[in-house]
């Protein structure tokens, strides 16, 4: 099951493959955007924890849908343009990063998402308290190793094919370009 690390890695790959990837000027703001947007659908876990002490109440409900991806991409692209004019943070870029989360959850796990909400609703049910969620995020990250290795491979091949410099996004990010 993709956790924040896995979703972030997939978001970074999308940014790398996207023709006008956003790490072109100041890399830190776009990086924050990738982390935030690629994990945005799981805000339903925080909402459930805060309201009911159960992270599973709303999990994989409306925030794991096509409609949520479209609406949040619209809002995020506006915020991106307003927040120091981050280049490359377009509606499509935001949508792809957000929706990658929903697709990854749908494809890589057995629990369905609510892709066509409000026409369907598939909340995961069950119970996850604060301790369960924190344990899962901190100690379950090892499960995302497969995703991270796959994503790193995709980025390297993308850069070889498109004659872009290696190693991939992180070295660029750390160097400020
Ligand atoms: Zn999710």
Written overview of the protein:
The chain has 177 residues and is mostly helical. The protein has one domain (4-175). It is 59% helix and 0% strand. The chain contains eight helices and no strands. Helix 1 (4-17) packs across helix 2 and helix 4 (66-82) runs antiparallel to helix 5 (91-108). The model has no long low-confidence stretch (mean pLDDT 83). Zinc ion (ZN) is lined by residues 41-42, 64, 101, 105.
* Radius of gyration over C-alpha positions, nearest whole angstrom: 16 Å
The H-and-E topology, N to C, reads as HHHHHHHH
- Give the termini separation: 32 Å
Q: What ions, cofactors and ligands are bound?
A: zinc ion
* Count of all domains: 1
Name the beta content range: under 5%
Quaternary organisation: single chain
How does the SSE layout of this entry go?
Blueprint lengths: L3 H14 L10 H12 L3 H10 L13 H17 L8 H18 L21 H10 L5 H17 L7 H7 L2
Bound molecules: zinc ion.
Write a concise synopsis of the structure shown.
With 177 residues, the chain is an all-alpha fold.
